[in-house]
Each structure stands twice: as C-alpha cells, then as structure tokens.
Amino acid sequence: MKVLKLSYNKQKDIDLWTDMKFGDKGAFNQIFEEHVHYLTNYGKTFTADWDLVDDCIQEVFCRIWILRKELKTTDNIRFYLMASFRNELMKSLQKRKKFNLIASWSELDAKAATFDMSAENLMFLENNDGRLSQKIKEIFIKLTSRQKEIIYLKYYNELSFEEISQVMQISKKAVYNALSKAMMTLRKGVSK
User: Fold this and answer.
1) Residue-level pLDDT at 158
2) Domain RNA polymerase sigma factor 70 region 4 type: where (predicted)?
3) Exposed e or buried b per residue across 14-51, where buried means at least 16 C-beta atoms within 10 angstroms of its C-beta
4) How many domains does the chain contain in total?
5) What is the pLDDT of residues 66-114, one digit of tens each?
6) H or E element that contains 2
7) Which one of 14, 56, 158, 162 has the lowest number of neighbouring Cβ atoms within 10 Å?
8) Number of CB atoms found within 10 A of residue 162's CB
C-alpha cells in the first residue's frame, strides 16, 4: 500500500496567513478556496446535515476575517482551520443536542460519524490493483470512527500526531495507539 504524498509548503502558509492578517482579500480567498473542500469532507464525517457543515465553515471564515489582526501566525493553515472547524461543528451539534434534535452522542457516533467511502475520501491510497483496493475499502469501513478520523487527518490532511491530538482533543498517545491498531487491522486484512 503506497501513501500518496500531498505537497505542503510551510513558508507559503506563513506568507499567505500574514498577507491575510494585513487585510489582503486575495490571500483570504485563496485560503478559503484551498481548504474549503477539506473542511467539507471532514464535516461530513460527523453529520449528514450539509447546511450545518456549510454554516460552520462560513462561521469559521467570518471569524477569521473579523479577528484577523489578533490571530497568531501559523505555519500550517489546514491544521488551524481543521481545529477551528471541528470546535465550531461540535459546538453546533451540542446546541442541537440541547434542543433534542440529536437524541444522544452515541446516536451521533453510530449514524453520522462514519466516513463516506467514496474514492475521493480514500485518495490517499494509491493502488492499481482493483481487488486489493476494494479489500482495503471493505476493511476501512469496519474501523472505528475515531480510527477513520485519525487516518483522514494523518494521511489526507498531513497533520502531525501533535496536531491531530489537538484537533480531536485527545492525548498524543491515544492518537498513536488508534492509528497503530487501524494500520495493523488494514495490514492483516490485506494479507489474507
């Protein structure tokens, strides 16, 4: 199994973020265009309510623009956006829970926190063998929602273990253990 490496440029992120902080609307639009797709895909791992996902993305970007002068410099825009978006989405889902629109978090986990198994969400797996690729998808479906989210953040968004732990608000060790178990499950399933 090969992992498709996405290109990432820290200096580009620093420059783009700095330009945006100084009011460059072009830089702000570029940040939006480069990252909205990742946020949308990440959001649909938690809920099927597309309007809620869009609202949360808009809220994050509105807040960034309004508070741009106070924001700290970042060398990883995607990490910043993922963490901000996840917090906003969880806050919105929690509000819904209070209004009895979601029966319980376990229901949310069971129904909404599953990955869409389209090729788009598994593009980090580069494989020419169709049978093996299908087998990987079948195994991937059986992973826990936490394992899927960690794989998504690690390989699809190239976040570090530290960044994943911050986004998911769990320990770095928990991230490492969940990823290790997921990769062992994938390897065992593929070798059968």
Assistant:
1) 83
2) 135-186
3) eebbebbbeeeeebbebbbeebeebbebbbbbbbebee
4) 1
5) 999 999 999 899 999 999 999 999 998 888 765 543 344 344 344 334 4
6) strand 2-3
7) 162
8) 11
Among 59, 79, 95, which residue's Cα sits nearest to residue 17?
A: 79
Beta bridge partners of 3: 125
| Residue 153: per-residue pLDDT | 87
Q: Which two tokens stand for residue 120?
A: 């788009």
The pLDDT mean for the chain works out to 79
In DSSP notation, 85-147 reads: HHHHHHHHHHHHHHTTSS--HHHHHHHTSS---SGGGGTTEE-S-HHHHHHHHHHHHHS-HHH
pLDDT, residue 175, reads 92
Contacts of 159 (CB under 8 A, 6+ apart): 76, 78, 79, 82, 153, 167
Verdict on whether the full-model pTM lies above 0.90:
no
Token match 């273990």: residue? 161
Weakly modelled stretches of the chain, pLDDT under 70: 1-8, 97-133
**Euclidean distance between CA atoms 79 and 137, whole angstroms:** 26
